[in-house]
């Protein structure tokens, strides 16, 4: 016998869209809450930026997406599709290049949303401000604030289950640099980078060298006088050297900003720069979630979560989709969505609370023994395929 429950999905990005589809396939009653005007999450480009370029002011006007107009994906489109909904459905329309533009990804997501009726399930411009378990109301209370046509209305509704799909590239993380308070030049986080023109003729320092910094260094390099990239190599890659190219040079980490406002790198090189861009990633934040400390965010570790999805003591009525990193979120979120939908309908059973806690503790212990910081908790990396295989087989052996 299959059970149908009333589920709130928070967020209509990749994770929320595919979660909503899987939940409706299992005949649950789904409401998606999305604070933006359209679906797409990160892939919904906006030329607007946070009102504080460093994104530190808690009262700033915030934008969700960090995309810049020139962004092409860092994964081939074949990895950015769902298992049963390929990116290349219409070969005529596909850009022959392997890495699609962000517009193409958004188009793909919007077509997915149209095909599976997700727009009809979604309350747009509606931000969830509080999620709380209320025993005597028999479920989870979701408080939301809708802003339509200039007016704001607040509502409170009870759900049997809540699936959090609010994204993990949310709150920009800024590098801690000794003496940075003395810095009189311009500073921003890459979340607020859109175009290179403001850096024309400047000496620019980028902190961090992930995919965004890689893109920005090349783009700014075309207009800036010099670009200096500060790279922190993990100990296993010590001795590795990045090849300077054009006016882009690589340095180790910044030691400090000195009295003369020069940037001093660990190897003693000093640079007189105009701007610093922090390409230092994001923090997980769940400002709406109230669980009396059952689920916490500690240095980007959202936990305790069984297989990154279920908090043992609140499962299956609270779950998280799309927290994992260093993989393609598309198929992972799809498998997580199937799992959550089937556990909620009673077709699949989770291990006992104790077994789930044991599995989480083993994971934490493994990380500690291998010197991995907490912020790597949701990195799949090489274990990506194991997670896919685990979830896939669990689903195969528990068919709908
Ligand atoms: P998001 O896309 O962040 O969506 C979350 C949604 O939740 C948003 O629509 C947001 O408005 C909504 N929301 C949040 N809080 C609330 C609330 N309280 N109430 C209501 N709604 C809420 N991944 C790749 O696979 N390939 C790439 O090339 C790639 N490039 C990237 C480049 C950049 C610059 C960034 C930042 C990320 C990139 N990613 C890439 C990762 C990207 O985050 C994922 O592809 C994907 O967008 C994650 O989807 P998500 O649904 O989990 O989160």
Automatic annotation (TrEMBL):
Keywords: FAD, Flavoprotein, Monooxygenase, NADP, Oxidoreductase. Its EC number is 1.-.-.-. Gene3D superfamilies: FAD/NAD(P)-binding domain (3.50.50.60). Pfam families: FMO-like. The keyword NADP applies. InterPro entries: FAD/NAD-bd_sf, Flavin_mOase, Flavin_mOase-like, FMO-like. Its cofactor is FAD. It comes from the Eukaryota. It is an enzyme of class 1 (oxidoreductase). Belongs to the FMO family. This is Flavin-containing monooxygenase.
């Amino acid at each position: 016998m299959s059970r149908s429950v009333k589920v709130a999905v928070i967020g209509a990005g990749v994770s929320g869209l595919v979660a909503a589809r899987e939940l409706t396939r299992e005949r649950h009653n789904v409401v998606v809450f999305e604070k933006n005007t359209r679906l797409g999450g990160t892939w919904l480009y906006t030329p607007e930026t946070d009102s504080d370029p460093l994104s530190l002011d808690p009262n700033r006007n915030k934008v969700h997406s960090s995309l810049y107009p020139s962004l092409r994906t860092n994964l081939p489109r074949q990895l950015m599709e769902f298992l049963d909904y390929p990116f290349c459905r219409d070969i005529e329309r596909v850009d022959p290049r392997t890495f699609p533009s962000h517009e193409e990804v958004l188009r793909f997501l919007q077509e997915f949303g149209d095909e599976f009726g997700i727009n009809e399930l979604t309350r747009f411009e509606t931000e969830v401000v509080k999620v709380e378990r209320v025993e005597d109301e028999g479920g989870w209370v979701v408080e939301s604030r809708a802003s339509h046509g200039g007016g704001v209305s607040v509502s409170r509704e009870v759900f049997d289950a809540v699936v959090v799909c609010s994204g993990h590239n949310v709150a920009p993380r800024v590098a801690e640099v000794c003496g940075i308070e003395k810095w009189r030049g311009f500073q921003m986080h890459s979340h607020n980078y859109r175009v290179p023109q403001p850096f024309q003729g400047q000496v620019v320092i980028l902190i961090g060298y992930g995919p965004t910094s890689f893109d920005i260094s090349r783009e700014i390099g075309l207009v800036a006088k010099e670009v200096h990239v500060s790279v922190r190599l993990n100990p296993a890659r010590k001795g590795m050297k990045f090849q300077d190219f054009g006016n882009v040079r690589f340095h180790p980490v910044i030691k400090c900003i000195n009295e003369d406002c020069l940037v001093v790198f660990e190897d003693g090189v000093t640079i007189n720069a105009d701007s610093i861009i922090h390409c230092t990633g994001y923090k997980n934040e769940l400002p709406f979630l109230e669980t009396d400390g059952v689920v916490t965010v500690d240095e980007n570790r959202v936990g305790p979560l069984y297989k990154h999805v279920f908090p043992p003591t609140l499962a299956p009525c609270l779950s998280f989709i799309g927290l994992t990193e260093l993989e393609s979120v598309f198929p992972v979120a799809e498998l997580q969505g199937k799992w959550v939908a089937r556990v909620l309908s009673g077709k699949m059973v989770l291990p006992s609370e104790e077994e789930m806690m044991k599995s989480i503790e083993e994971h934490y212990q493994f990380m500690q023994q291998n010197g991995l910081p907490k912020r790597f908790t949701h990195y799949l990396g090489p274990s990506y395929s194991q997670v896919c295989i685990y979830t896939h087989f669990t689903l195969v052996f528990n068919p709908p």
